[in-house]
Amino acid sequence: MSRSNPAQAGVDRVDALAMAVRKIKWHVLPLFVVMFIVNYIDRVNIGFVRQHLSADLGIGAAAYGLGAGLFFVSYAVFEVPSNMLLQRYGAKAWLTRIMFTWGLAAVGMAFVRGEMSFYAMRLVLGAAEAGFFPGVVFYFTKWLPRDERGRAMAIFLSGSALASVLSGPISGALMLISGGGLHGWQWMFVLEGMASVVLAGFIWLWLDSNPRDARWLSRAEQDAVVAEIEDEQRQRDAAHAVTPSAWSLLRDPQILIFCVIYFSVSLTIYGATFWLPSIIRKMGHFNDFQVGLFNSIPWLISIVAMYFFAMLAARFKFQQAWVACVLLIAALGMYAAGKGSPTSSFVAICFAAIGFKAASALFWPIPQGYLDARISAAVLALINSIGNLGGFVAPATFGLLEQKTGSIEGGLTGLAVMSVVAAGVVFFARMTPREGRRALAL
């Protein structure tokens, strides 16, 4: 009777794992990127309809800014509970639910009638969407080995940059539609929201919650993935006699630092996102589609910058220094944006986009490397939700400033100062797990 060769079995497992990783990436990453694109467009498309909301519904600058920001309040409140429910009901069911309900809420934006209904629908949209981003991050921890998650995250985050490029032309083109008793801006909300609803059906048919459910993986590939993830967990258990809890890490000052840094990044991203179309309109007499095309330029530049700085960070190791560097670039650009004509402001924001989009991509590997995977989903959700409150503060403040002073220069200067502060924090803070802490690299 022949005996199995342990060495050969190890080689077979390595080969099976490598094949499984390739299949997983091809199966789920394109879908997640498309979901992120649709997600981002539904979140920020109100930036293109600001003047229409004012003309048709009487929603002024302050009300627009508040409504734009309220999305992030409900998003923050429901982010952690949503992620916990994802772990309970599985990624397939819960991500389908998230996509379906946020699509309906996005459609509902077409039928707001004034300030109060505008506020209500933005709150509903935020609650519906909560849990998507950290849910995908958690999904990676259950399907991909430690060494593959960083690359998968980079591809997934590219969806945000790509969405920033596509949102302008797509939204601008849809706003040129008329008829059926709806304005162009209403058609934009309806069609972009329905795209999310349709995609929800595809998610239900395509996605699996666990590797064991994936019929497109062979049994050997399923075994290899499950064994690798379980081995990683056993290594954590061996290194830490006490299982870390989310509540213990919430008392960790390092988590607060992560929240502050991502809050500063989000301030700048959403300050630019929601007010850039208005700056472009002041540059000349452009229709909605032309505004959308101009809006794509900073984000196209940022895509190149994201990959350029990612390569530098991979080659010259010191992630925190690279995050600090790009935050300083963002600070310089935002400060310059408040000091000139609309055209020079647009050019300055193009420069700032190099910094704040690269900062967003370079930031996430730092908390991922700090947290134990057993509680990373809830804590990453917390960092994301608190950080995204910058999406409330920036537009709400900008709206008040413009209504009171007729200018957003003070807001742009404030964003520059916050980026400088965040650069200092991220550069000097110690962000690696220390011996005895209940944290371990993913």
TrEMBL record:
CDD domains named in the record: MFS_ExuT_GudP_like
Per UniProt, what is one Pfam family of this protein? MFS_1
Domain called Major facilitator superfamily (MFS) profile: residue spans: 28-434
The record's listing under Gene3D superfamilies reads:
MFS general substrate transporter like domains (1.20.1250.20)
Q: Which UniProt keywords apply?
A: Membrane, Transmembrane, Transmembrane helix, Transport
Q: What are the subcellular locations of this protein?
A: Membrane
A single GO CC term for this protein reads: membrane
In the bilayer, the protein is annotated as: Multi-pass membrane protein
Q: Where is the chain membrane-spanning?
A: 24-41, 61-82, 94-112, 118-140, 152-178, 184-207, 255-276, 296-314, 321-338, 344-366, 378-398, 410-429
| InterPro entries on file | MFS (IPR011701), MFS_dom (IPR020846), MFS_trans_sf (IPR036259)
Output the Gene Ontology terms for molecular function. transmembrane transporter activity
What protein am I looking at?
Answer: Quinolone resistance transporter
